[in-house]
Predict the structure of Noncanonical pyrimidine nucleotidase, YjjG family protein.
Amino acid sequence: MYKAIIFDLDNTLLDYTYSEAECMRRTVREHNLDLDNEASWNAFWPAYLGHNFKHWMDFVHKRGSHQTIEDVLIHSFRDTISLQDSAYEKLSATYWHHFCNTCYFEPGAEELLQQVQATHKLGIISNGLGLAQRKRLAAGQIYEKFHSIIVSDEAGVRKPGKEIFDLSLEELKLSNSEVLFVGDSLSDDYHGAQNAGIDFCFYNRRAVSVSDEIKPTYAIESLKDLISVIQS
């Protein structure tokens, strides 16, 4: 039925949540920050995530003065932990290096891609930074599996906008009725697919309750279940 499967990347094919935390744990250990015990970590990490989200939103929507991802990271660290000014840039550089050069897969993602690539074109549509997304795919040795990789900062458009999906369809040389989009986000992925007139498979990785108004074409809780979806 479908000629291509297009995936969201973070928390769909790659475990962004785990990667973010694990790379930060490596960073604070390497810089000898006193965050090894769980009480210290549990105080630091949620606070950092809150500040990071605020600065990331300012960066993405150009509401603040942040010009680069390095600005975002430096300000996130500065708002979370009190250190000498020179330490923030070093922390940010270490974290960003680890994040861009590691690849942690969602359960079953590698096996799924290996199976599906034999029968379908593969694509990615990601709201993110092209440098990081492409390096992480390369680190996981799956970059070459994809016929199209569209990342929002390179494309200048974001999900849930229809335009970013149109770019993917153009690269895949397919119509919206010939592809299935798989993602974990109802706000970006579900509504984006709706805007583009593309069938959507909701990867409900946390088995969350969904309101009756949300009607994805398919819903799965495990990536291995996608095989039965595309073969139906």
